[in-house]
Amino acid sequence: MKPSNSRTRLVMGNWKMHGSLQTNAVLLDAIKAGLATSPVVGELALCVPYPYLAQAQSALAGSAVSWGAQDVSASAQGAYTGEVSAAMLKDFGCTWVLCGHSERRALHNESSAQVATKAIAALAVGLTPVVCVGETLADRDADDVECVIADQLDPILALGAESLSRLIIAYEPVWAIGTGRTATPEQAQAVHAFIRRELAGEGAGEVRILYGGSVKAANAASLFAQPDIDGALVGGASLVADEFLNIAAV
Ligand code: PEP
Q1: Which residues carry out catalysis?
Q2: 202 in helix, strand or coil?
Q3: pLDDT in tens, 153-207
Q4: Does residue 55 contact residue 21 with C-beta atoms inside 8 Å?
Q5: Ligand 1 contact, 85 CB (< 6 A)
Q6: Which of 18, 95, 165, 219 has its CA 20 to 30 A from that of 124?
Q7: pTM of the predicted model, to two decimals?
């Protein structure tokens, strides 16, 4: 039985670069309609592409679903063509922003130090950064999981207890993202427990830690039963209203 704690479960969708005004409207309507009959345990949120923040805001305002973005600039304003600041995200009612998703680390060479500066920019305007960490399959095969995660966490831990208490960590093994291959609950729990010990060392042991990587309604219950898993970051399954709501209802 999962020990009780004060950490509210959070299920957060990440639409990645999917959607259109038309398909989003259908999906958002279906999620809102489903909320009438499907219980949500804890909090439910969606991180949508920048151009659809206004749509998410107008569709979700007043509902049980909060929204956020998938990246943020480390800078507050200025000559940063193509970048979007944390204050701009606040203008669209965002609560959350993903920082350091593995796709950004891999495709945009984001370093852990840069990820921390993005988290600082988010915190400065009252957004909650969801800082993503996770090892590759090669790291896991080399038995390097804790080393890799510790390196990714280092600049975040350096922010100190007060900042840490205002962010969320998402553990997303790269080999489980979009592959249909989920970490076993035991594999995920082992890494979550390691992350929690690292956070506790900075006086922030109660920070929420989400698991991400091919989470579906069928595997969510066994993941959520683990003592250090406080919810999920959900990619593909967040694009299907019933599946997303069923994860949140587990
Ligand atoms: C993600 O995009 O963060 C993710 C976990 O994707 P998926 O659920 O599709 O593996």
Answers
A1: 101, 172
A2: coil
A3: 999 999 999 999 999 999 999 999 988 888 999 999 999 999 999 999 999 999 9
A4: yes
A5: no
A6: 18
A7: 0.97
146 located within any domain: yes
Residue 104, ligand 1, Cβ within 6 A: no
**Total domains present in the chain:** 1
CB of residue 68 inside a 6 A radius of ligand 1: no
Nearest protein CA to atom 6 of ligand 1, as residue:
235
- Residue closest by Cα to atom 8 of ligand 1: 235
Which residues are CB-contacts of 73 (< 8 A; sequence separation ≥ 6)? 80, 83, 84, 85, 86, 118, 121
The pLDDT assigned to 3 comes to 58
Q: What is the pLDDT of residues 108-157, one digit of tens each?
A: 999 999 999 999 999 999 999 999 999 999 999 999 999 999 999 999 99
CATH code of residue 140: 3.20.20.70
Domain range enclosing 137: 16-49+82-232
Q: Residue 70 falls within a domain, yes or no?
A: no
Q: Which atom of ligand 1 is nearest to the CA of 212?
A: 5
Residues 223, 187, 158, 111, Cα dihedral to 10°: -100
**Residue 200 resides in a domain:** yes
